[in-house]
Amino acid sequence: MKIGFIGLGNMGGPMAHNLAVAGHDVAGFDTAGVTIDGVTSVDTATDAANGADVVITMLPNGAILRAVADQIIPAMKSGAVFVDCSTVDVDSARAVADQANAAGLGAIDAPVSGGIGGATNGTLTFMAGGGADAFATAAPLLEIMGQKSVHCGESGAGQAAKICNNMILGITMIGTCEAFALADKLGLDRQKMFDVVSTSSGYSWSMNAYCPAPGVGPDSPADNDYKPGFAAELMLKDLRLSQQAAESADAATPLGQAATDLYTQFVDNEDGLGMDFSAMLPRFSKLGR
Ligand code: NAD
């Protein structure tokens, strides 16, 4: 397949590389001039889109996605499919899909879970929204870049699934960190705390797979001085998207709002910027009531 890949950053770079390794003809563009082994570098987003069967975008946010879509949709060949894998707001995902559909193109939003490791190893999870035909065209490519893809529904459904998942993640990470900090002050050994909670009803991915306490549980960013991993500012981005969606859908998400406020405080006013999102534990450890 001829593929255009736009946005070759931490995630897009290895994803494009994996498609090339699988034998696809990949033309890549990034404003930072990044080059990726096996991917043909082109000078503009339009060049990447020209003649492609599928165009994949992996960009920082919805505003940039909309700007790129304005450039490339007129250049895409009829019947081609636009696959956006970025994490963006649901409204931007729907607007871009409508624009693509109106131009005679297929479109899916297909954000990912799994981080840079998943992108490198081809083990991402994709959650997709959009038409069945467009999803069927993209599916073999998603299979190369990931280990699982779920077609969640119409346009925007992939982004909806992504931000709901990450809202849960932000909330459970804060809860897990709070509980460790409380346990410390109650004199409970952290290993004992992990042994109990990881096999009791307080367990979660945050505790069991990504334990925020150094030296306890599986290897995690806590064991590497809280270097990301999944940076606190990316968690904050996703939490803000969840609150933007909650606002436009009139949904009550008090804990999502509280998590957003805490990560805002951590990233903007404390030392959270550039730290892993599990560094909420040392943050709480420093605080009293
Ligand atoms: P990144 O900043 O490393 O990469 C984004 C790339 O887009 C950069 O290389 C940048 O130069 C390029 N870019 C910006 N504007 C452009 C334009 N107009 N045209 C072409 N290229 C442009 O970010 P990332 O970590 O690769 O994340 C990409 C997306 O994936 C984001 O939406 C992020 O929320 C999402 N995501 C990231 C992770 C993660 O762990 N990093 C996990 C899941 C989802």
Low-confidence stretches: none
Mean pLDDT, to the nearest integer, reads: 97
Ligands, deduplicated: nicotinamide-adenine-dinucleotide
Helix content: 40-55%
| Major pleated sheet | 9 strands, mixed
What is the tally of beta strands? Answer: 9
Structural category: alpha/beta
Q: What is the ordering of alpha helices and beta strands?
A: EHEEHEHEHEEHEHEHHHHHH
Number of helices: 12
Instruction: Please state roughly what percent of the residues sit in beta strands, choosing from under 5%, 5-15%, 15-25%, 25-35%, 35-45% or over 45%.
Output: 5-15%
Radius of gyration: 20 Å
Determine the N-to-C terminus distance: 58 Å
Shape: elongated
What does this protein structure show overall?
Helix 3 runs parallel beside helix 4. The mean pLDDT is 97. Helices cover 49% and strands 14% of the residues. The protein is an alpha/beta fold and 289 residues long. The longest helix is centred in the middle third of the chain and has 29 residues. The structure holds nicotinamide-adenine-dinucleotide. The site of nicotinamide-adenine-dinucleotide (NAD) has 26 residues, from helix 3, helix 5 and helix 10.
